[in-house]
């Protein structure tokens, strides 16, 4: 998909002015950093579930150069190691992905993806630091891509440069400015790439801040449009999770939204996302994670105090988190599918946190318990 960011079908309104801080008195001067932080989780989740579509939309040259038949891998353990060794401030690399090149060469390429929502002076330096750390892993090529979700149309960092006494280092990375897509919202609405909808929802989240009625109508229109695209059932569910998160509503408006959505899906005989059982399981699982974390912290603190070891707190937190996730997921499986077979319980007991999170996402669309553990 080629994109012409200069094309503007909205002749009466400049969408960038609808979002920019200087033209929006409702926007706090601090850029709503806390609000942006809440966007990190949905972005990372949708990126992981639709990574191929992500590259096709934002970096097509990379998408076309990858052999997707050989799969790809998110390097979570390596990512943890890099962020631990190369921490800068409170921000970390978001995703590190291993892919095959489609040029006959049997070598891997690392794709470093960063979702950046704050205007940060040291951002180029951080991109270079993570590039260097990632390359040190296997000496593989590293491709950097930064998705800039901030609201300053003039902030476009794309290069780290250091020069001293004849020594020169230059690192250029790819950037995508979401604000540029605001010039053509109509094309986003009609695109069949899931990340066109992701971008659309993100932009409208900025435009409708502190305007609950306008946000309600916008959210309803975007959700309805999902059923008019060629999206699969799972894609609709994944996109709904993102849209529901970034276009959150006050309780009253949220109840009205769910009432309309329930009627809509019943009319179309497509109950993808309005099943009370599924909604309850999803919320219950998230609550279970938080409860597990709190239990783990308490256990860790107790053990740490007794033994005088910091390691006790860390292990207690991890074990408590894991137990809480397993318990909640087991309850939800039993509620939906009946008694969980012994092989299923064994898999739950042996799973790590990332695996449990992946299984939890499948509950929404699974019709058989075997589909959860595939």
What does this structure look like?
With 374 residues, this protein is an alpha/beta fold. Helices cover 56% and strands 11% of the residues. The strands form two sheets. The chain has a five-stranded mixed sheet. Strand 3, helix 6 (123-138) and strand 4 form a beta-alpha-beta unit. The model is unreliable at 1-37 and 88-93 (pLDDT under 50).
Topology:
Layout: H1 15-19, H2 33-49, H3 51-58, H4 60-64, E1 72-74, H5 76-85, E2 95-100, E3 108-116, H6 123-138, E4 142-148, E5 159-164, E6 167-172, E7 174-177, H7 185-190, H8 194-207, H9 212-226, H10 233-246, H11 251-268, H12 276-307, H13 310-337, H14 342-350, H15 353-362, H16 369-372
Helix pairs in contact: 2-10, 5-6, 8-9, 8-10, 9-10, 9-11, 12-13, 13-15
Integer average pLDDT? 75
**What about the largest sheet?**
5 strands, mixed
Number of helices: 16
Strand content: 5-15%
Strand count: 7
Helix % is: 55-70%
Distance between the termini: 32 Å
Low-confidence stretches: 1-37, 88-93
- What is the element string, with H for helices and E for strands? HHHHEHEEHEEEEHHHHHHHHHH
**Looking at the structure, what is the overall shape?**
globular
Q: What order do the strands of the largest sheet run in, or round the barrel if closed? A: 1-2-3-4-7
Which class of secondary structure composition applies to the elements?
alpha/beta
How large is the radius of gyration?
Answer: 22 Å
């Amino acid at each position: 998909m080629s994109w012409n960011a200069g094309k503007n079908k909205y002749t009466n309104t400049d969408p960038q002015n609808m979002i920019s801080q200087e033209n929006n008195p409702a926007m706090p001067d601090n850029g709503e950093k806390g609000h942006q932080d809440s966007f990190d989780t949905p972005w990372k989740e949708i990126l992981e579930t639709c990574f191929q579509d992500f590259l096709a939309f934002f970096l097509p040259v990379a998408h076309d150069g990858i052999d997707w038949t050989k799969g790809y891998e998110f390097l979570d353990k390596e990512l943890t190691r890099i962020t631990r060794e190369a921490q800068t401030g409170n921000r970390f690399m978001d995703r590190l992905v291993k892919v095959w090149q489609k040029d006959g060469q049997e070598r891997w390429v690392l794709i470093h993806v960063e979702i950046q929502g704050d205007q940060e002076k040291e951002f180029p330096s951080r991109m270079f630091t993570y590039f260097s750390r990632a390359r040190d892993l296997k000496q593989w090529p590293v491709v950097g891509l930064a998705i800039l979700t901030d609201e300053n149309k003039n902030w476009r960092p794309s290069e780290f440069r250091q020069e001293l006494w004849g020594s020169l280092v230059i690192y250029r990375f790819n950037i995508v400015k979401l604000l540029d897509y605001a010039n053509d919202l109509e094309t986003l609405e009609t695109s069949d790439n899931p990340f066109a909808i992701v971008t659309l929802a993100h932009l409208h989240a900025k435009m409708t801040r502190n305007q609950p009625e306008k946000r309600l109508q916008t959210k309803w229109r975007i959700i309805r449009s999902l059923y008019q695209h060629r999206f699969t059932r799972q894609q609709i569910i994944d996109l709904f999770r993102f849209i529901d998160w970034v276009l959150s509503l006050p309780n009253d408006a949220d109840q009205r939204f769910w009432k309309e959505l329930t009627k809509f899906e019943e009319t179309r005989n497509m109950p993808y996302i309005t099943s009370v059982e599924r909604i309850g399981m999803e919320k219950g699982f998230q609550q279970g994670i938080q409860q597990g974390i709190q239990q783990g912290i308490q256990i860790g603190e107790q053990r740490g105090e007794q033994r005088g070891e910091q390691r006790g707190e860390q292990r207690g937190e991890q074990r408590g988190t894991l137990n809480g996730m397993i318990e909640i997921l087991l309850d939800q499986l039993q509620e939906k599918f009946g008694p969980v077979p012994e092989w299923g319980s064994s898999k739950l007991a042996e799973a790590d946190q990332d695996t449990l999170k992946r299984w939890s996402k499948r509950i929404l669309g699974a019709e058989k318990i075997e589909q959860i553990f595939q």
